[in-house]
Write a structure and sequence with these properties.
Elements (H helix, E strand, L loop, with lengths): L2 H9 L6 E6 L9 H8 L18 H8 L4 E10 L6 H23 L5 E4 L33 H7 L10 E10 L2
Antiparallel strand pairs: 1-2, 2-4, 3-4
This protein binds iron/sulfur cluster.
Length: 180
Amino acid sequence: MSIQQQIEEIALNYPVCEYTFGDIEEVPFSDKIWYICKTDCKRYGKSWSCPPYAGAGDLEKNIEKCKNYQKFLVFSTVTEVENAWDAEVCLACQKDHTEVTDQMYEEIKALGVESFLLSTGCVICEECACPNEPCRHPEQRHESMESHGINVMQLSDAKGMCYNYGGDTVVYFSMVLFNE
Ligand code: SF4
């Protein structure tokens, strides 16, 4: 059984909404994505898992790291909520998504596969230590896909995945890069 088939068997045991596999050449890397983070996201510069600090703290190097892998799995979780504009609700959904991602990735690592995880950014600490103190849990944190130059909306479109299920839903994505 190929590594991809083994990973798929693992993914099927988790409450993911959609998942798909692809080749690294299909990933829409962009050197503009940090600009979008800077202008649109309050986590920019305030999380060790997000731009401009995550990974090597260098977008080109982060993209190069991803390109060391041949393939990827990307998956989403979707939660219905009463008010998707409520930041606390979104954080709770993100924590649930992180838990699913952690459990699934532990199983994938146990296959002995060369792999690298990217997700929605880190939600471990109530308040991130960034930028004044070092990360408290560098081994456990999930770095964001955007920090590695990946345009998640473009990727989901290209792979036929849904990014928006309507007003009262919250969607998060994670990605596992791997070699066969
Ligand atoms: S573990 Fe804590 S300090 Fe490190 S990135 Fe996550 S929230 Fe920030």
